[in-house]
Amino acid sequence: MARVYLNGRFLPREEAFLSVDDRGFLFGDGIYEVTAAYRGRLMRWPRHLARVEKGLKALRIDYDPSELEAVHYQLLRENGLEGAPVSYVYLQITRGAAPRTHQFPSTPVPPTVYLFAGEYQRPPRERWEQGFRAVTVPDQRWARVDIKTVQLLPNVLAKQAAVDRGADEVIFVKDGLAIEGALNNFFVVFGRTVVTHPCSNQILAGITREVVLELCGRLGFPVEERPIPVEEMFQADEAFHTGTLTEVKPCVEVDGRPIGTGKVGPVTRALFDAFLEEAEGVARGG
């Protein structure tokens, strides 16, 4: 029986209930975070915590998340995930339950804090080597994508559009630019040069994005953080998505058109292998 954390208590998932007045349910008034764990060890927790703190500050939710690292580890233990090759912890914090008004509650209420954990099944390497397909979708999200809020309806509709078209991933397009995925960041490669959209309010600054940029430096791949016109994307030699549970995911086709040779390229492969080494280091406690 899966166990979750809700407002200070660890309990069976079946016993966890939220108020119908919760502002996360009524307004999407909250933030979330997903942190990967390798052999029970959290990857880049300080960076995830910093992003949580940024979101809480932006939404003006009064909550101190400094104790949540211990909650993450206990939740992994309570679900028997300490030895899982890859697992994750989902965290969601909303403004709490209050009478429905668009403004903040006149009398402050305790925020709702909810976490659950699960095991991630990485696609077999044979499947990864085939590459994945993406479709472009107009970016209709709000103007503060850099805040990891729970209001994800545009992402849900975009992901379903990909499923409906037999694709695996999404590339949001805005003003003729390839921005990012529905749940991950997006990169293209020209020769050995790795290109991705710069950090701004238009993308979520992914933790795995950050790791991959560091790996580019170690491997000697030049990096350009700049906008990517859609037509330039189709001229790229390689493309890939990155994310907490995406890791490094090769994109070999967009809208039915091959990227490069239509096969996984050497830069993507090198970055994925380097990422797996990084994750193994986390698992060993490095």
Q: Whole-Å distance between the termini?
A: 31 Å
Global shape: globular
Work out the helicity level. 25-40%
Report the order of strands and helices. EEHEEHHEEHEHEEEEHEHEEEH
Assign the CATH topology of the largest domain: D-amino Acid Aminotransferase, Chain A, domain 2
* Tally of contiguous helical segments: 8
What ranges have pLDDT less than 50 throughout 5 or more consecutive residues? none
Could you give the count of β-strands?
15
Largest sheet: 9 strands, mixed
| Coarse structural class | alpha+beta
Mean pLDDT: 97
In the CATH hierarchy, what is the class of the largest domain?
Alpha Beta
Give the percentage of residues in beta strands.
Answer: 25-35%
Rg from alpha-carbon coordinates: 19 Å
Count structural domains. Answer: 2
Reported CATH architecture of the largest domain: Alpha-Beta Barrel
What would CATH call the homologous superfamily of the largest domain? D-amino Acid Aminotransferase, subunit A, domain 2
Give a verbal description of the structure:
29% of the residues lie in helices and 28% in strands. The chain has 286 residues and is of the alpha+beta class. The protein folds into 2 domains: 3-119, D-amino Acid Aminotransferase, Chain A, domain 1, CATH 3.30.470; 125-283, D-amino Acid Aminotransferase, Chain A, domain 2, CATH 3.20.10.10. The longest helix is centred in the C-terminal third of the chain and has 18 residues, at 266-283. The relative contact order is 0.14.
